[in-house]
């Protein structure tokens, strides 16, 4: 079981890397589009139109597609002022509770996203903007992002839960615990060491 979950997590990690590149590319493309639109309005007094609409879609989709990567890297913001002072066993239990709460919230959010998409498909809904964007397109991409997040969250939760039940608290912390200052500092030091000097 553990081997299966570890393989699942490995696949989720690879997919999340592709997803974050896709999401980042969307956000960068929207930033470029908005910049061009602003310059055209300033210099030529004309507008392409729709850049604000497209950037809104890009932000929503890019955020959804980045959620899995954020979860696996434990990069989500957590208030840990009290958490850092609690016993390791209690921290591990709280980590599982946090993942379960996230799973519940994500389940509700994904269900509602599917409902919105289903409604748009049923009524052939289009945006009330000059672009008249068929809403199923951005909504589908948005929903896929939540699907990828679920695909990442399920094995992570199960693996952390098995580790807790077996008393493997370090594994629970490495999978689901809040990042420590020491971990962040070590990552920064590793990244800095890998950089090449400009004069080389």
Quote the distance from N terminus to C terminus: 48 Å
Order of helices and strands: HHHHHH
**Share of β-strand residues:** under 5%
The SS-based structural class is: mainly alpha
The number of distinct β-strands equals 0
The residue ranges in which pLDDT falls below 50 over 5 or more consecutive positions are: none
**What is the count of helical runs?**
6
Average pLDDT figure: 90
What is the percent of helical residues? over 70%
In total, the number of domains comes to 1
Query: Could you tell me the radius of gyration in angstroms?
Result: 21 Å
Main β-sheet description: none
Silhouette:
globular
Q: How would you characterize the overall build of this protein?
A:
This protein is mainly alpha-helical and 200 residues long. It has one domain (2-178). Helices cover 76% and strands 0% of the residues. It has helices at 2-43, 51-72, 88-123, 136-165, 169-176, 181-194. The protein is globular.
Quick overview of this protein structure:
The protein contains six helices and no strands.
Give me some keywords for this one.
globular; 200 residues; mainly alpha
Write the layout of secondary structure elements.
Elements (H helix, E strand, L loop, with lengths): L1 H42 L7 H22 L15 H36 L12 H30 L3 H8 L4 H14 L6
Helix pairs in contact: 1-2, 1-4, 2-4, 3-4, 3-5, 4-5
């Amino acid at each position: 079981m553990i081997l299966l979950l570890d393989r699942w997590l490995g696949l989720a990690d690879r997919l999340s890397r592709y997803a974050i590149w896709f999401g980042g590319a969307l956000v960068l493309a929207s930033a470029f589009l908005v910049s061009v639109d602003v310059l055209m309005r300033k210099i030529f007094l004309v507008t392409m139109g729709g850049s604000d609409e497209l950037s809104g879609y890009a932000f929503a989709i890019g955020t959804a597609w980045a959620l899995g990567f954020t979860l696996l890297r434990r990069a989500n913001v957590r208030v840990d002022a009290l958490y850092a002072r609690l016993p390791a066993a209690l921290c591990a239990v709280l980590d599982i509770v946090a993942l379960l709460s996230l799973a519940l919230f994500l389940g509700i959010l994904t269900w509602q996203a599917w409902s919105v998409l289903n409604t748009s498909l049923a009524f052939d809904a289009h945006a009330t903007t000059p672009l008249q964007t068929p809403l199923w397109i951005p909504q589908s991409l948005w929903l896929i992002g939540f699907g990828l997040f679920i695909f990442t969250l399920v094995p992570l939760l199960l693996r952390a839960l098995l580790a807790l039940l077996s008393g493997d608290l370090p594994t629970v912390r490495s999978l689901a615990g809040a990042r420590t200052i020491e971990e962040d500092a070590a990552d920064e030091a590793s990244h800095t060491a890998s950089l090449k000097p400009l004069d080389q």
